[in-house]
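Dear support,

We are seeing what looks like truncated structure output for some complexes. This example has two components. We would appreciate it if you could run it in full and send us the complete token output so we can diff it against ours.
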Amino acid sequence: MSRIHITTTVNGEAAEFLTEPRETLLDVLRNQLGLTGSKEGCGTGDCGACSVLLDGVLVSSCLVLGVEAQGKTVETIEGMATDGALHPLQRKFIEHAALQCGFCTPGILVAAKALLAQNDNPTETEIRYWLAGNLCRCTGYDKIVRAVQDAAAEMRGAA
Amino acid sequence: MRYHAVGSFDEAVRISASATGITRFLAGGTDVLVQLRAGTVQPDDIIDIKHVPGVKDITRRKDGGWDIGAAVSGVELGAHAELCRDWPGVVEGMRLVGSTQVQGRATLTGNLCNGSPAADSVPGLMAAGATVSVTGPDGARVMAVADIPKSPGKTNLKPGEVITRVHLPPRGANGGDAYLRFIPRTEMDIAVVGCAVNLRVDGDTIIEAMVSLGAVAPTVVLVPAAGAALVGSTLDDATLDALVTAARAACRPISDRRGTVEFRIEVAGVLARRAASIAYARAKGETA
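Here is the complete output from our reference environment:
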């Protein structure tokens, strides 16, 4: 099977890879680019553990082919902390103990960041609907919702 | 598997017409890639139509209707304020499909072509009288959305044919539509029953009405008798009772893990009544 050469931008840096047509963006991120923060939970777009931004749009990277990343920008959990400083969402998740096993956490952080980028003061209902496609089997979600609200408040204050 | 990023629908059709194996057109991929990964459909050729000029466009026609490109996502549909004002029922049906992540990719066209009787965006399109432009090896044609579904997972598109655009008619004055579905939770589930109502009023009187039901038959269905029950009325209780009776009479559901035959028939009536009330209020310019 012939492999296709793809050039793309991942977390602000140029990246290139060779991929077979049926490989997903998630496979490429994890197995070729060494970005293992995005997780495969279900592989069918139901759990959100593989959430990334593709040209600024929140998507499940397990439901994107690697070849579709040609010429696009991809943002993953690895790009969330800047210069070693955690993003407010990351800090608040730690403070609120909004994770236990942590498998869903990268996807939820990426999804929550996308929410706050378009709504800096979401209600609890808005947060729960936005994150409905991010499954967590440990926390029961309450701590996640509170962490997102707290991070949003801090980010509003800092702005 | 070969991947083709085509620059035109003609090129897409050329590839699909000459393909000997299984072909899938790729827009949002939220069904195609799930089937690929689950192993239920292993395409030999995947034809990505997202680079075709215009597939991401939402355009108001001169007659006031709308053309929606085949790759317009749920997010993009929901962000279009004018379209949402004209066809809130169509948009709310599409916006119920999947999660935020799925909404970033999933399309009206894909939801239609997937052929699910429970497709959330299809009842609203049918009730609106939407049509689609189709291109294939034998040329182009326009089909009613109501003529696309054939049976669970199957459409009436011919081999090699691809939907290029969805067309919504002009909303016109005093119209309103609505879509409701029943699921046992609040989000991220497949409709047990879905119902769309599209109607127009003159004063308080309904002068046109279309009703469509999802997940109660092998395909999404239009229910002309339910629409007829509304026309000429002011949505009084007797009319609503007639609507409910007509909607339930059109149901040919199956029992499965999501709901029984009896439950689906019952709920179809309930949703028809509620969706009609919302559409009626919207047609009269009231909030609903």
